[in-house]
């Protein structure tokens, strides 16, 4: 049984743990706090870890002995990173270095972001020069550089806006998809910018692609890969698709400029395109799904909650 250590137990970390465990991996989620809405499942465990502590990272790696390591760590709150840019820069770099140095030979995979770009290019590829304009983007660029400096076998997978179903009682702002659906099924208005574009990718599709890159028998992936969804959509258009899927009237949506929304600081485009990802086996038969398909698949989960 191959073993994977996932550093970070947030939305994507938990989805990746589920995917790997279903494929027969032994999985450990390592984070400072116990994962929310997660119970110990077959093949999975949680390890308490302050990944800023290098000695703690060494102990964790020695105790679990992973074949592969994945870095999905934070801080990922864009607003917090903007208020504490130096702290965010140091944390992302330190955690990346600690795990890469503690687990040599595990082909560490760092999950990065479209925020490494300034949003002027509608379809940035792996060859597009980075130009972050936010504290979070600069922190991730630093983490990418640290990984490639400390782990020659490491790879970076940049992902566009990740979305999917999340519980409504989380203490953090839900991903755009869940936030919109939860409000609409309860008859509440929702603000969606008309001038902020993204290439959304469902969390399970990200986990599936990442799992394929981690396979013990698979060739080592390129040092850098992009993963975005198959379509470039504005948040306002996406919100309209969600409203239709959950059976809510579009009159509940308020289409506004991003300057009048919580996305005022986001670039116009948070999109990704890839030159290399087409060669990943997981994408040959099952490319990432379109937002309409996912919205209709998940709509019953939100509709059921509206009656609780």
Automatic annotation (TrEMBL):
Gene3D superfamilies: NAD(P)-binding Rossmann-like Domain (3.40.50.720)
Domain RmlD-like substrate binding: 6-279
Endpoints of the signal sequence: none
Pfam families: RmlD_sub_bind (PF04321)
Highest taxon in the source lineage: Bacteria
Name of the protein described by the UniProt record: NAD(P)-dependent oxidoreductase
UniProt organism field: Nocardiopsis kunsanensis
């Amino acid at each position: 049984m191959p073993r994977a250590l996932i550093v970070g137990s947030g939305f994507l970390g938990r989805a990746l743990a589920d995917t790997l465990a279903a494929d027969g991996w032994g999985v450990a989620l390592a984070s400072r706090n116990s994962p929310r809405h997660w119970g110990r499942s077959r093949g999975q465990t949680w390890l308490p870890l302050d990944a800023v502590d290098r000695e703690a990272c060494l102990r964790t790696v020695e105790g679990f002995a992973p074949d592969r390591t994945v870095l999905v760590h934070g801080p990922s709150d864009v607003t917090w990173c903007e208020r504490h840019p130096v702290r965010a820069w140091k944390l992302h770099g330190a955690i990346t270095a600690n795990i890469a140095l503690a687990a040599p030979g595990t082909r560490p995979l760092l999950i990065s972001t479209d925020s490494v770009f300034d949003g002027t290019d509608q379809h940035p590829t792996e060859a597009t020069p980075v130009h972050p304009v936010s504290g979070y983007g600069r922190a991730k660029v630093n983490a990418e550089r640290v990984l490639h400096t400390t782990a020659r076998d490491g790879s970076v997978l940049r992902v566009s806006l990740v979305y999917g179903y999340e519980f409504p009682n989380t203490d953090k702002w839900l991903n755009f998809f869940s936030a919109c659906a939860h409000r609409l099924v309860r008859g509440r208005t929702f603000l969606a910018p008309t001038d902020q574009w993204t290439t959304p990718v469902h969390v399970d599709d990200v986990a599936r692609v990442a799992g394929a890159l981690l396979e013990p028998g698979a060739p080592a992936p390129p040092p850098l890969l992009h993963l975005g969804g198959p379509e470039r959509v504005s948040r306002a258009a996406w919100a309209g698709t969600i409203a239709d899927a959950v059976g809510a009237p579009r009159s509940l949506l308020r289409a506004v400029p991003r300057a009048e929304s919580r996305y005022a600081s986001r670039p116009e485009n948070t999109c990704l395109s890839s030159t290399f990802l087409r060669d990943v086996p997981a994408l040959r038969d099952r490319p990432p799904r379109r937002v309409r398909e996912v919205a209709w698949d998940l709509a019953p989960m939100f509709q059921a909650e509206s009656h609780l």
